[in-house]
Amino acid sequence: MSGATLVAGAGLFALLEWVRPSLWPVTTTNARNTTHPNAPDSAWLLADGPLSTDGRRVLDVTDCYARTDYGKCLESHGITGHWAEFHPVSHLWPLQWTVTALCLTLAAALVAVSVWRMRRHSY
Fold it and tell me: What pTM value is reported for the model?
């Protein structure tokens, strides 16, 4: 039984890690004339990438990484900015409370099912 509990706990942890970024609205920024995400250092960076001259998100230009003239290489591919999706530090507690509410709801549902089964199958 302890093995099943371990697997269930690990599964719940993995599920929470997977859904946590989408439990609260994400902040998105676009920045021109930069190759770095425009997000605070304390933010939880979820995704980022380059922007084209018309503001569209484009695939990463991997052939520019090894170049010494990185900025010029990006410009030659039409990359003039960077976008970022992140949760600022102000989202920490709302995210924590939402995850806590999910865990407490699941715990209450499991207790209710356990009590129901025990009453139904008791002799």
Answer: 0.72
